[in-house]
Amino acid sequence: MMSNILVIIGGDAAGMTAASKVRREQPDRKIIVFEKSAHTSYSACGIPYFISQIVETYQELIVRTPEEFRTQYNIDVRTMHKALEVDTAKKRVRVLDKTAQLELWQDYDQLMIATGGKAFCPDVSEYPQVGVFGISTLKSGIKLEAYLEEYRPRTAVIIGGGYIGLEMAEALLIRGLSVSLINRSGQVMNTLDTDMGELVSEAMRKLGVTLYLNEEFVNFESENNKLKAVVTNKRTITTDIVVLGMGITPNTGFLKGSGISLAKKGAIMVDDRMQTNIADVYAAGDCIEVLNMVSGQHMHIALGTVANKTGLVAGTNLAGGNASFPGVVGTAVCKVCTYEVARTGLQEKDLDKLKIDYVSTKIESKTRAGYYPGSKGITVKLIAEKGTGRLLGGQIIGEEDAAKRVDVLAAALTHNLTLQNIIDLDLSYAPPFSLVWDPVQAAARKLIDQV
Amino acid sequence: MMSNILVIIGGDAAGMTAASKVRREQPDRKIIVFEKSAHTSYSACGIPYFISQIVETYQELIVRTPEEFRTQYNIDVRTMHKALEVDTAKKRVRVLDKTAQLELWQDYDQLMIATGGKAFCPDVSEYPQVGVFGISTLKSGIKLEAYLEEYRPRTAVIIGGGYIGLEMAEALLIRGLSVSLINRSGQVMNTLDTDMGELVSEAMRKLGVTLYLNEEFVNFESENNKLKAVVTNKRTITTDIVVLGMGITPNTGFLKGSGISLAKKGAIMVDDRMQTNIADVYAAGDCIEVLNMVSGQHMHIALGTVANKTGLVAGTNLAGGNASFPGVVGTAVCKVCTYEVARTGLQEKDLDKLKIDYVSTKIESKTRAGYYPGSKGITVKLIAEKGTGRLLGGQIIGEEDAAKRVDVLAAALTHNLTLQNIIDLDLSYAPPFSLVWDPVQAAARKLIDQV
């Protein structure tokens, strides 16, 4: 018999995609969404552009408001409601109504967990109340933007050199702050190989960011609970604000004792239908682990694309359909001022760990015919399996019209294409768009001789 | 035993790619290239941008000069030599040395034909010597540019609405001419479906091009051998110049009686190793037919990408290697001022002819997140096989960052991906580059319900 009440915890990309899908398939189903903030369905990826004021109001980042979901979709969205506990035996959720400061139990027939993630907060002795910002929710973005507007800080230190760190560096540069960035490894963008990461480090320096690489964050210094400086293992950096870019932690603390299986770092383990190990409990988005199809291993990856796709799969199955999510290949893209960085697949250090024998090469090419105005440099690195020539990974750095070329490599990885297959692809060419041999094909042509 | 003398007829993309490949593999091989013009290895695709003066000198279009091939590659390039006849029985070629006005016979052990194509010239009673221009070789481009510079024509009529016609329309608009375009069918870009072609027609009109659609070219009018007007089946259009964009005809007239098999429209028939039906005779580039992997039929297609790829395959095999060219999927891309047009695969009229049951849909989307500056409209049309959902074709029109997205569809077509496979692809997303569901995935999501 069809379950009756669907409870969804978390009202952003994954949760609301699922809710909308269920509503389309089951017009009369009772759907309750608990969302701890005041907002639903917003573009978390857009927050850096709101911080930089490229996007003028945070409302522009909102796809659909709680009110719209209630009135147009008949979805019972309860904002300012935070889930505290899941009782899978009795099929109920304990929730805090933050406005009324009341706790309640809500029964469910099916449950979906889409609580996303939060910026990883280091566990240090001196954690000031004012001046340290983590960017994960719209609320956290609004808070930082308001602070910039009101207190006009002049200096910022970003801890962490991943894509959030880089995008926030851009945002704060645009806002006129002097920006430093601390990263534990010798480069920014650890998801790139060293040689490619160094190119990004150089680009960041050119943009005016002071990089402290091979340097570990140790503690904050503060006065009256207000941030004064960041202490690393090498120095103390005086700064007005800090932005945390040390990764995203799944919001799954409230699942302790629920019996729902979590992976090592707290991400929920699901099968390809987004089902957890507990009957009638599904999960999707930034709080789950997904399969990396290239490595065959599961990984936690906080990305809007994955949240939407897994949300759609969960929603389809919750509505009695049959959808599955094959997994990711590790595609990510990031823009920092004039630079574009993209990656997909495995990187050399992954392959070393997996003991897969590989070859790799890097080429410099152009985004358009050399004679065509606006042709910019592009660096493409490809990694392929030794012997078979199967593509294992690709990384791209350029200034314009560069990054999106990674999509062909993502398709190639998903369907096990070899370098020869890539060379043979009938990719589009005209002088304003590419070279006769697209840069990704030029890289494949160079690498194939090493296979 | 390894053949000794390699003769190549034609010194542009396919011919010189093959020559260079053979030289790399066989440093001592005797390689003779007969080229009827004064130029080798230039970007024919770049000619419109030389006409528009976006590219200042024609030399910028030249990748390598005959002199460079002679001195750096030890390739015996003989420019101003036109092949007149191939005697496959005696393995020799009759050639006209245009400078000396002498004919000679050249023996070969292996022969490669890479004579490309020329603009189709209508066979009409009144063909003026001055004022009608076909664009295929660098020489023809130089001639038109010189004419524009010297005589400052004010009006141009382009006959034909394919990509050469559109690119030449752009070039002449930039040069300040008043441009009209005649096309036999009801739209420009017949390689697009009617609904998409109409969007391009609209765009052309917005740019200021007068379109005469559903109209047939009949004849020229001239005075003292100088063009005065173009006559169609509906009107007479007074004009200073005409540019022919009625297609490219393979330069294979000289093969009559050689025994080399030609297809209906004169393109050379080759196997996937670029071998003709005659032993030791290969061909590549704009003068051959290639396999369309989606339709399973052979077609003549004049594109730089195909010329380079087939030239490389021919060169590899001529040097004793073993390469094959799997075919094309019909990818093409074209820019006209601010508009980008791309297509791949089959179009609806192809499928009707092939009696393949299909579904299709068209969506409007954005190239970047809606809130991100510079986000432009993009229209994506997808066609898929009814029942299986296998992709059969894709067409894209947009204003910026639109066209190159066709590459993912080209990869999908080559490897028989379904709409679900496309939806599942791990394509890159960040607000400056795309939407969470890339427009091609959004189109696949819409179409999958019709399958």
Walk me through what this model shows.
2 copies of one chain form a homodimer. By secondary structure, chain A is an alpha/beta fold. Chain A contains 11 helices and 25 strands. Chain A has helices spanning 13-25, 47-51, 66-73, 138-151, 163-174, 194-206, 304-318, 348-354, 406-414, 419-424, 439-448; strands at residues 5-9, 30-35, 76-79, 81-87, 92-97, 102-107, 110-113, 117-119, 132-134, 155-159, 178-182, 210-212, 217-223, 226-232, 236-238, 241-244, 248-250, 281-283, 289-291, 298-300, 332-336, 339-345, 358-366, 377-385, 391-398. In chain A, the strands form 7 sheets. Chain A has a 5-stranded parallel beta sheet. In chain A, strands 9-16-10-11-12 form a 5-stranded parallel beta sheet, covered by helices on one side. In chain A, strand 19 and strand 20 (298-300) form a beta hairpin. In chain A, helix 1 (13-25) packs parallel to helix 7. The radius of gyration of chain A is 23 Å and the shape is globular. The termini of chain A are far apart. Chains A and B meet through helix 7, strand 21, strand 22, helix 9 and helix 10 of A and helix 7, strand 21, strand 22, helix 9 and helix 10 of B.
